[in-house]
Amino acid sequence: MTNKKKSGQIVLCLIFVAVILVNMFPVVWMVSSSLKTNDELFSEKLHIIPPVITLESYRVVMEEYSLFTWYKNSFLSTAGIFILQVLVALMAAFGITYYKTRWNSFAFYFIIVTMVIPFQVTMIPNYVTISNLGLKDKLGSVILPYVANATTFFYLYQNLKGIPREYYEVSRIEGGNAVWTFSRITMGLCKGAISAISILTVIDSWNLYFWPMLVLTKPESRTMTIALRQFLDFEMGNRWGPFMATATLASLPVIVAYLFFQRNIINAFISAGVKG
Amino acid sequence: MLSRSAMSDLRRRAQRQQNLGLFLFFLPALIFYAVFKYFPIIYSGILSFAKWNFVKDISWIGFKNYATMFSKPMVLSGLGNTFRYIMAFLPFFVVIPLLLAVLILYIKSRAAQSIFKTFIFIPTVLAMSICCMVWLWIYSPSFGFLNRMLTSFGMESISWLSDKAYAFGAVVAVCGWKFIGQNMILFMAGLLNVPEQCIEAAHIDGANEWQAFWRVRFPLIMPTVVYIFITAVIFAADRAFTAIHILTAGGPSYSTTNLAYVIYEYAFKSYNIGMASAIAVFTSALYLVLTIIMMKSLGGFEYHD
Questions:
Q1: Both A247 and A143 in a single domain?
Q2: Which of B 193-222 lie inside 8 A of A, CB atoms?
Q3: Which of B11, B37, B39, B124 to mutate to test the interface with A (most CBs of A within 10 A)?
Q4: I want to staple A156 with a disulfide (CB 3.0 to 4.6 A). Which of A93, A146, A269, B127 is the partner?
Q5: CB contact under 8 A, B33 and A114
């Protein structure tokens, strides 16, 4: 019986090892291709671990392309979206849970209802708005439409709602005004929730593709994900080596962040659902 | 002793202060949601009655966009493909992740379980666009991994992305691959929330594992199933855009387009903003119905004091 159980466990583990091998293959293939020589990339034989490991592709990307500009653009737009989106959502959630007025439910639904608005409906008008504001090809064009995010709001609202009113009463008696209460009490108590939703927001912003592609058309304004497209120009001939190097460099921060904050990320995914 | 009128005056002032406080904290949200969410819906609605190309003057053509919408082959194939995508995504979004979630919970070793979980989840955090471009290399007709494998076994190579028989499946495979880990995690969380007593009670009543799953566990994780089903629908109509744009550009002969892709083609390729807006409004109506179903069946989106 115990033997049977043991072999059952082994079979289960083998199933998962197989699933992970298939699941991880594209990622492994990306990193492996980025380390291959050009001849090896197009050779008949397939090596998962390249026989000759070279950083040539990385050198090409750094010397011939504006890799650091892309990194900077991705970094700045991600930072902008993350800070504004979380701050605006947090302020709204605080206002609704801290004050008692007859406008509270209106304010709540004003945000929640936008969950059902699909991206395509806002796409064209926002494109017009961004053009009229003169923001096209500037990073603001990527940041501003993503500040409003009902999922982030809802997640934070649920957490703020759980703060016992006594904390606020004490803070008021101690003479703390709303801004002080917000920045010291609320943000302190919801540190976990704020960091969880922040991680999701950062990953989502870093990975944006469709909208930046529409509004960032100049080479010098491109973010990492958009810049990658230029390696795949069929007329110029695909430059797979440098492409794989850039793709690896773009994915690395996300994978490292994931491995560090794994538990937080997975928990945030479960409680906030899939962000959009 | 304060007079009654002074009291109510004080109360009114306190209430006004409350209103002002809420207003100030809500103001940034009010501005951003008004400009980038509410204005666009209204504007899209208006534009759906227009003929416009971003540059020339707008001319108003009434319901013509809506009337002619379903006679356009591109719109019809986009709509049809969206439903085909929904059906094709179900095994990858629901069946396989649920099966894996059930299996992984049978693993006794906590360490092994958490290592598997960590790795299976990795594709979720990567950018869809980058993944698709890497897959483009795997699918590549002459140098791609898949065709190299086929030819090394002496088989003919396949044009995965330009052959009508394979392109749709190739897009589905990439989208499915991206979501298996994420949905497995969601199912795991759902399954772990089922109280142990329920399962034990079922076993005491003589149910075997199989019956306990279908009669007890599965009904209790129904909200997760509904949630994932809705995300599959939204993905089919909307988010799959990235995969389609990069892998096939909607081809061959519109066989891989979805609704989002059709809107994009009309808006930013043929600059027919009116038609694009009309399709967008139609898509939103579709979403609205689905989201109401989701919110009704899941609950928890109401405001409570």
A1: yes
A2: none
A3: B37
A4: A93
A5: yes
Dist CA B198 CA A12 (whole Å): 25
- Domain of residue A39, residue span: 2-54
User: pLDDT digits over A233-275, tens only?
Assistant: 655 566 888 889 999 998 988 898 888 888 888 888 887 764 4
- CA distance readout (Å), B57 to A115, B48, B51: 33, 15, 9
Does one domain contain both B42 and B84? no
Report DSSP state, residue A37: -
The ipTM estimated for the assembled molecules is 0.88
Number of cross-chain residue pairs from A and B with Cβ atoms under 8 Å apart: 257
Q: State how many domains chain B has.
A: 2
The answer to whether the beta carbons of residues A142 and A225 sit under 8 Å apart is no
B8 and B152 fall within a common domain: no
Provide, as residue numbers in chain B, all residues whose Cβ is less than 8 Å from the Cβ of A14. Answer: none
Helix or strand or coil: residue B59? strand
Angle subtended by helix axes A2-34 and A240-260, to nearest 10? 130
Tell me which chain B residues have a C-beta less than 8 angstroms from the C-beta of A239: none
Q: How many residues does chain B have?
A: 305
Token pair recorded at residue B258: 């979805």
Which CATH number is A163's domain given?
1.10.3720.10
Query: Contact B283/A118, CB-based, under 8 Å?
Result: yes
Identify whether the C-beta of residue B131 lies closer than 8 Å to the C-beta of residue A35. Answer: no
Q: Please indicate, yes or no, whether residues A162 and A179 belong to a single structural domain of this protein.
A: yes
One domain, residues B42 and B187: no
Which residues on chain A are in Cβ contact (under 8 Å) with B47? Answer: 124-125
For residue B11, give its domain range.
4-47
* Partner B, chain A 31-60, Cβ-Cβ below 8 Å: 33, 41-42, 44, 46
User: Per-residue pLDDT tens for B236-269?
Assistant: 888 889 899 999 988 788 899 989 899 999 998 8
